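Worked example

This section walks through a single chain of length 334. The input is the sequence exactly as stored; nothing has been trimmed or padded.
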Amino acid sequence: MTTQTTRLDSLRFKTARAVLIALVGTGAYLGAALLFSSSASAATSPCSDPVASAPAGPATVSAVSTPGFGRVLVVGSGAYAGCSLYLLTSDQLHALSGAGFACNDSPTVLGPACDTVLWPALLTDGAPIAGPGVNPTLLGTVARTDVLAGGVSVQQVTYAGLPLYRFRFDDVPGDTQGADLFDPVTSPTGIWYRVRASRGGPAPGQAQLQFETVGPETVLAATMDPDFTDVFADAKFPVYTLSSDSGHESACHGQCAQDWPPVLTSRRPEAIAGVDRHALGIIVRPDGTHQVTYHGQPLYLYDKDAYIQGKVGTAGINGAGAQTQWGIFNTILP
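Given that input, the structure is written out below as tokens.
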């Protein structure tokens, strides 16, 4: 949902990504990923490298200031210094219910494992080190036996309780291809965000809202993941209101917020394509994130709307009129 667009730094990188996009369209996701990685490895140790073995020392996490996301976390040292770090919202279910991590080594519809290839886990041997701008009290670890082959126990770095990952299609430090990615490949579905340095949690950038034709209807929609739309089609997802919300407050937390993720923003949301900018606002959720409102009503996405073109899920409006234990969710018409 951020307006920041990552610029590719070299013709080599652009060529590799163009080949990747073409191959994804034909279903050769893993082969494209390998080509992408090998084309970059001659010049640097790419942020896209998979996790293949346990680390030999402690990981360092640092913070950098960005114009679109604010101050966010990156790998602080070693071969991947400067590579963007991400969290997955549905990993919160591990803390809420003891459920397994949503990004794990189980087979995915794309083939390669989530936590070693698609979103390489940030592992550490020993307590992680807080680099510049990082709150050391928020750094921690969680034991994982679902990352390396054979069930080997390793420690993954956490920040404010959530595990940290790199992204397969980030090539060099500064790339943010994984930011704000509504990912149906994880189980359960979640949203990948960059990570706030100040208190942890999502750093979503600026939300963009517009009226978009989704299937047979035109509804208010949020733009998710503008940097990776080559694979995720237009990446515009319908937004919903909840009947039980009142007084500019959200009644959707815990499991509700996993099924119906709040539309988040780092600053005042942007109105596009006929949306009245005065109708857009912000409320602060209990975790300190900022949720977008429309005429005072908090806005949500629906996890069943997430899709990858031709791979998993379908583009559409799958949550309109849904009657849930938290209330009724409805779309917004022009």
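What to look for: The helical segments are 11-25, 29-41, 92-97, 114-118, 255-259.
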